Amino acid sequence: MTDRQLEVSPLIIIDWGLLDYDSAFERQARLVQSRLEGDGVDLLALVEHPATVTLGRRATDADLHFPETLFAQRHVTLKKINRGGLATAHEPGQLVAYPIIALKKKDLRWFADRFLQVVIDLLADYGVRGERKEGEPGVWVSGKKICSFGIALKKWISSHGIALNVNNSLKTFNMIVPCGQPTEIMTSLSQECGHSVDMEELKERFVEHFCTVFAYTRQTTN
Question: Which of 115, 121, 138, 167 is least crowded, fewest Cβ atoms below 10 Å from its Cβ?
Answer without folding.
Answer: 121
